[in-house]
Every structure is written in C-alpha cells, then in structure tokens.
Amino acid sequence: MECPSCRADIPEESKFCDACGAALPGRCPSCGAAIRSGAKFCPACGKRLTASDRNPTAATPMAPIPASAERRQLTVMFCDLVNSTVLSARLDPEDMRDVLRVYHDGCASIVKRFEGFVAKYMGDGVLVYFGYPHAHEDDAERAVRAGLALVETIGATALPLPGELKLQMRVGIATGLVVVGDLIGSGAAREEAVVGETPNLAARLQGLAAPNSVVIATDTRRLTGGLFEYCDLGPATLKGFADPVRAWQVVGPSAIESRFEALHAAGTTTPLIGRDEELELLMRRWQQAKGGDGRVVLLSGEPGIGKSRVTEAIEERLSGEAHIRMRFFCSPYHGEAALHPIVSQLEHAAGFERDDNAESRLGKLEAILAPSTKTMKQATALLADLLSIGGDRYPPPNLDPQRRKEGTLKALFAQLAGLAADRPVLMVFEDVHWIDPISLELLELTVERISSLRVLLVITFRPEFQSPWTGDAHVTTLALNRLGRQHGAELVKCLTGNKQLPSAILDQITAHADGVPLFVEELTKAVLESGLLGDAGDRYVLNGPVPPLAIPTTLHASLMARLDRLAPIREVAQIGAAIGREFSYELLAALVPLPESTLQEAVDRLVHSELVFCRGRPPGATYTFKHALIRDAAYTTLLRSRRQELHARIAQVLEDRFPETVELHPEILAHHWSQAGLVEKAAFYAGKTWLHADGYQRRKQRLGGWEIGVISYKLGNRYRCEVDNVSPGARLARGEGPTRAEAEAQALNEARKLLARTRVRS
C-alpha cells in the first residue's frame, strides 16, 4: 500500500508509515490499532476519532509547508563528456543530438539508481546532487558508486550510429557546505540553485580527471574511508582556489567485506566500553552452542550504538579457540539482489580474483565445499549457477526457478551443517534491515533448524526491522542501550590517549552525544582536530573561549537523512529546534502557521518517527529531541537570516504570552534576543538572569590597585563568574567551571592579566 502523506511503498499490515511515521488511514493515529468504519473512539486507547481516521477514503495527505533555501552538507558530482567538441565537428547535428540523448538518459538512469538528483544538464555536462532534496546516511558513498557506474556504463553504451564510436567521460566529486533551494530562472530554465564552493570544486576536479576516471576531494575521501581503493594525485592547483587542493582518483570498490571495518582505518578501532554484560551473555550463548545446542542472538540498536563493534569484540574473544567464522553483510545497494550476502561471502571465502577464469573459480569453489558437503556434484552445480561461473563441468541444473531456489537454500544450509560437524561455527549476519527476500528465507531456514548444530548465529539490525523469531526458545533478544555519562567520559579518555579534556569540553561532548558511541567518537575527533585545544602533556587546555560544538562532517548526512524522512513537516522540527532541545506544544502552536489539527498531526508524526519524545498531551504537552545532535542538525539547516527571524518571534511571543517564563527564566529570553541580534534587549534580560540564578552572589574586593565587583551564579550544573571594574562599571572578564571556586579563579586570573596592561587606576 502507499502512504497518503509521503507516498512511500509500505506493507499492507502496517500501522504507521515506516518512511515518515504517519498514522495510516483506517488506523488509530495515536496507538495504530485497527478501527471500524463509523467508530467515534479508538477501542484500544480511547482516543476520539476524526472522520479521516474512520474512513480511509476521507484521508488526505498533509500539505507540506512551503520549502525555502537551507544550509546543507552536499556531495556534488560533475560529469563531462570527453572530446564533445571534436564529436560535434565530426557528426551531423541530428546525430550529435542522438548521442547526447543516449548520454543524458544513461546518466539519469544511473543517478536515479543511487538516489541522486540531476540538477542541471549543461550541453555535455551534468550536475548532480547527493544529499538534496533527500539526504541519505551514505551520500558520499552513493556519489562515488554512481560515478564508477557512469564511467563503466557510458563507455560500454551502444550508440545509434555506424562505426566504432565509443563515449568517454570524466567525473569530479566534492563534499561541503552549501546553500540550496533558491529557485532561479523561469519556465524550462527554472532550477534550484546551489551556492558555495563545492560545485565549483567538483567541476575543477572533473577537469583534472583522466578520461573514464573519477576524481574526488579530500572531504569526500574522508567520508568514504576504506570502501574504495584510491590513487593519491597529491595537491593540485585549481583555477579559482587560492591554495592547492588534494585530489584522489577512485580506482574501484575495495575488497573489504565489512562496512564497519572499511569505515574504520586499521588499528583505529576504539576499546569497547560499557558492554561487559552484553559480552558475557554472548559468551554464555557461545558455550551452549559449542556443546551442541545451537543458539541465535538478535542484536538490535539504533545506528552508531555499537552493534558491529560488539560482534567484533566476540570475534576477538574467540581468537584463541578452534572455530569457524562466517560473516555475511547485507547492503543498502543490493536489497533486490537475490542472496547477495551469501554470494559475497562465498566469493570471499573461495578467494576469487577479478581475473580468474571459469575453470579457476570452479576449482576454488570445489575446494571450500569438499570438506563440508556430501552431495558434492549437485551442490557445486547449484552454487556455481548462483555465482554465475558457467563452464561445461557443471551445467546449470535443469530445474524450474522455485525448485532451483529450494535446492540452493538446502545446499547452503547443508554446507553450514557440515562445517559445524567439524568445528563450532560463529555465524554473523549483519545489517539485516537491508536484507533481500531470498536471503531472509535462508536466514529463517537456518534459525528454524540451528538448535541441533554447534552454531552461534548473531543477527544484527536496526529497530525498524521486525524480527519474526523472537518467540523461539533458542533465540535471545539483546537490545543495545545508550552508554551512561561515566562510560561516555571513559570512551572520550580512550580517544584522547588518556589525556584529560577541559571539563567544559567534556561536558559538551557527553551532553551532545547522548550515550551513542559513534557520536562520542566523532565529536571527540572533531574537537581534537579543530585547533581549539593545546597539548599540555598529560592533559589538553583551551586555546580560547569555548564555542558551541559543530556537527562533525561524518555525522551530518545520517542526521539529515532522519529529518528528510519527514519532509512535509520538517519545518515544524526546525522551529522546535530554534526554541531549544525541549519545547512546549503551546509555544510551538503560537509560532507555526498551521491549523491546530494539522499541527497536532505534525507533532504526532515527529513522535512516531522517534525524533522527539513527548510528555503529556496537547495543549499541555512538552517535546524533547531524542538526540541533541538531531536538534542541532534541524537548527543548522536554517539560514542565518531565518534563525534570527525565528529567535525574534520566539522572544516576542514569550514576552507577550508567557509572563511566568519572563519572570522565572529571563536567561531564555536573553538567549533568544541575543540570537536575534537585538543586543539591548538581550543585555536587559541577561542582567535579570543574575538575580534569578541559583546561588547568586555579589561582592566587592581589591585586585591590585583596583576595586572590582565579583558576581557568581549557577546555571544548570555549571557556575559562572563575572568580574567588573566598579568605578567605570566596565566588564573585565568572565569565567565558567563545575565549581564556584574554579569559575571565580578563571575570571579573576583573566581580569588580573587585563588590569596589569592598564595604566589608569581607579
């Protein structure tokens, strides 16, 4: 069935859309229970139902809030046809038109396959965006794979012309911050413009590329890690760029099977922190499996929570034991390719090389099947057919498709049983949320029959995958939760080489990471690479004031992908983000230009998508972003002018309608007026903030020949200190720390330095 909101294709039995979180017609919008036609209340939760809830035909998609330009991290690909001018001179204009049509159609088809967006055709040039209008967690990888596919496909395309004419192309790819979404031009020339240096860099890199090659910039190279093989082209001088730009030619996909390993350089895997209980449980299941009682562990968790790291830790624990390891990896690019994880595993286990002929591959396949397979001839014929090896020794079995599939699955399970008879098997099936249907059938067969084998099967997946095996006695469900603050701080210390970070920085990292190990890791790396800290031996010290943490480039795409699934209501999330990590329905309703019923539907979708948590019910509800970084991602997409406008509106609404907030929390208004750029109003409320802060103290004292005022107070879990010169009434310094003494010492030290350079005394 089709979601009436975002038009995603979803299973018939769904209660909510798995793409945008919308409640589906004919279902209760609150709990998702089925409701009969004409019902006024939900029989499961008691919610009052509207006509559109009761009658599927009455449901209409929510109209999207008009989109505006926004700031985004974008991967831009620029393609160009080689020697198009020479071709134009050789060919009749109609023939050249046919060549360009074939070229453009080929580009569009491949870009669509990798879910990019063709922004513009410019004669023989094509401009493509990955990350807009919809972001994916792997946009840089998608762009590179699309570039390699373009070079291969366009070069092999048959042209509608006589002769041996073959097309060649160059591809340049760059990743960076842009402003995108402004509509320029009109009619057929209308387009969504991108402003920033990234498109220019992609175009210059394309000019640097050799025919039929893909060249990428450093930021793209950082995001794709070990997923590809590269040739370092070194720093290149490019027109329009003041400094040389380092460039890389992409040779092809790497041979590394695991995405986790490919994206983590060798030797850089961080220690596993806070997962002792999970590892102990897995080791108990391993001991049971070794004794002949096959076990299955369903390991689930949100992206970045550490599923792959846990499976890696189990493999490390078993490194000294005699066992067989089998690893299968599902891919977001092969969800429709039958048995793709199994094909990849067999090719890797057999040691296939790119230049192996059919006979060589058959020999390698026979070598890995012989120790574990009884019906050698039949199994080899079926698996050789699966691997598309060909040859006369094992012709494809003369079976209909259904019987061939059943025979192949039976042969694969028989191979597993044969291996387990020799030694215990650790079988890991990763990222099953991307699994293809036939591989899922094999997995179901394996789970059903594994209990009598010496096999521990670990299946990893994200929460959106609905496991069909949770009720079986030999199956254990293990959900990975977020790390506590102490474990988060311990992980930071490991990443810094046991050097202590300033408390203000550590607090920001742990607060923004929300216990997700990947977030902790990337935020810490970003801080260490930022130049913000100086190395003082056993610790790091600040080189200047503490700025807000920016979202690391490596996390930006995955965070935006979560927001883009809610495209029709993303602006509601952005306005909520401008209010803060926590916002009330009442304040949101005063800011969002939507009818109440539409707004309630929008916030319900935010809750169902698990981007925000809800306490209470509208209009008394309060919402909190699940992750601080999700809130930051929603906020940073707003243009600076739009942010200022929103903060001014928020502050004005608070002044007009929320007198208690004005009285009890002047720091909130100080923040919004400050972000709106209205300094006088911000200063007024900042002054009131001191009087209302916890632990407010003010005293006068002498500092050298000066009389100073020392104001200290507590905001949240930190102390602040302001030092001013009493006679002129000028602010001298500010300090901040986890204790009052530390904040005052910092502020007084800065004030002492400033006054030492001043000749005039009070």
UniProtKB/TrEMBL annotation:
<dbReference type="Pfam" id="PF12773">
    <property type="entry name" value="DZR"/>
</dbReference>
<dbReference type="Pfam" id="PF00211">
    <property type="entry name" value="Guanylate_cyc"/>
</dbReference>
<keyword id="KW-0547">Nucleotide-binding</keyword>
<dbReference type="InterPro" id="IPR001054">
    <property type="entry name" value="A/G_cyclase"/>
</dbReference>
<dbReference type="InterPro" id="IPR027417">
    <property type="entry name" value="P-loop_NTPase"/>
</dbReference>
<dbReference type="GO" id="GO:0004016">
    <property type="term" value="F:adenylate cyclase activity"/>
</dbReference>
<dbReference type="GO" id="GO:0005524">
    <property type="term" value="F:ATP binding"/>
</dbReference>
<feature type="domain" description="Guanylate cyclase">
    <location>
        <begin position="75"/>
        <end position="206"/>
    </location>
</feature>
<dbReference type="InterPro" id="IPR041664">
    <property type="entry name" value="AAA_16"/>
</dbReference>
<dbReference type="InterPro" id="IPR029787">
    <property type="entry name" value="Nucleotide_cyclase"/>
</dbReference>
<dbReference type="GO" id="GO:0035556">
    <property type="term" value="P:intracellular signal transduction"/>
</dbReference>
<dbReference type="GO" id="GO:0009190">
    <property type="term" value="P:cyclic nucleotide biosynthetic process"/>
</dbReference>
<dbReference type="Pfam" id="PF13191">
    <property type="entry name" value="AAA_16"/>
</dbReference>
<dbReference type="GO" id="GO:0005737">
    <property type="term" value="C:cytoplasm"/>
</dbReference>
<protein>
    <submittedName>
        <fullName>AAA family ATPase</fullName>
    </submittedName>
</protein>
<keyword id="KW-0067">ATP-binding</keyword>
<dbReference type="InterPro" id="IPR025874">
    <property type="entry name" value="DZR"/>
</dbReference>
